[in-house]
Design a protein that fits this description.
There is one protein chain. With 316 residues, this protein is mostly helical. The strands form two sheets. Strands 1-3 form a two-stranded antiparallel sheet. Helix 4 crosses helix 11.
């Protein structure tokens, strides 16, 4: 059972690994000063692509649930991330975001009945320490608005992940273009009654989150006046297809298959990959503190994913 859990975790880890390359792609390929444009072009095209592939729409209460999940996991999370990135040094923002696993562990114990174990608590705070060693600079400054935004982003993604686990997947969806039919055993709003795949659920969230971000983009940044060059198009395509469509599909698949409190720790891989990508691509050097931070993050992941019989300190 443990080996199967590790296999699923390894596949799910592709998501935060791809997110760890976002900074490098953004800084090297995308136009500067357009984070909200990048966020919209990440989420909306990816969601529409998955929607075209799955051809499945929500039914009944899953319209509002998709909006809630899309706002928490995509729309609000990206917006808070943008604000934190502008108000804080990247290291501070990343360290604030690293509290996510601790938040998820607490929320999962309250909302989905997962045990809040000593291992998770210890591993969670070790993860924060590890990320701080990796990305935090000695001259880092604090800004109240930026700190609140970073914490709000972590809360938004954490709550969205736990609610994704709590609500699971709908049993039926409406196929695009299918005729409605009514059956004693089928919700009349369910259309063809096609079982809903994880890709469809991911599509709904990405479309909802992207649409939530559009008015924020128009109010804060406005539309670009110049067409993107080839490098920017390639960067946007990578972030949308790999960093969003593929990554979120694998992330939500992992949440469905594993305890959400464990999956959240995989997010600690993002700052590790970001630093390693700078080492490989940009020739940046790693300090002794960063190496120690990577080791601490690795230790927190080992602590979580090798647990067999957790002893709860709090459970629902």
């Amino acid at each position: 059972m443990l080996s199967n859990q590790l296999r699923v975790a390894a596949v799910t880890a592709i998501a935060p690994i791809s997110w760890g390359t976002t900074y490098l792609v953004t800084s090297e390929l995308l136009p500067p000063g357009r984070p909200l444009l990048a966020a919209v072009l990440r989420a909306l095209p990816a969601g529409l692509l998955l929607l075209a592939i799955t051809r499945t729409l929500p039914v009944g209460g899953w319209w509002w649930r998709s909006l809630v999940l899309g706002t928490l996991n995509i729309g609000a999370f990206f917006a808070f991330l943008f604000l934190a990135a502008y108000r804080l040094p990247g290291g501070v923002a990343a360290t604030m975001g690293a509290i996510g696993p601790v938040l998820v562990a607490v929320l999962a114990s309250l909302l989905v009945g997962e045990a809040l174990t000593v291992r998770r608590v210890v591993a969670g705070f070790a993860g924060v320490l590890g990320v701080a060693l990796i990305v935090l600079q000695a001259d880092a400054r604090l800004d109240a608005v930026g700190v609140v935004a970073a914490l709000a982003g972590a809360v938004s993604m954490s709550l969205g992940s736990v609610l994704s686990k709590r609500w699971g997947r709908p049993q039926v969806g409406r196929r695009i273009g299918a005729r409605r039919r009514t059956s004693p055993d089928l919700d009349p709003n369910a259309g063809s009654g096609a079982p809903v795949s994880g890709l469809a659920l991911t599509a709904w969230q990405l479309v909802a989150g992207g649409l939530v971000l559009v008015p924020v983009l128009l109010l804060v940044e406005g539309l670009p006046s110049d067409a993107p060059d080839a490098a920017a198009i390639g960067g946007y395509a990578y972030l949308s297809l790999v960093g969003t469509a593929l990554a979120y599909a694998l992330w939500f698949r992992g949440i469905a298959a594993l305890p959400v409190g464990s999956v959240s720790f995989l997010g600690l891989l993002s700052p590790v990959v970001a630093v390693l990508a700078g080492l490989v691509v940009l020739g940046e050097a790693l300090s002794l503190g960063q190496l120690l931070g990577i080791a601490v993050v690795a230790g927190s992941l080992i602590l979580v994913f090798t647990a067999r019989r957790p002893r709860a300190i709090l459970s629902a």
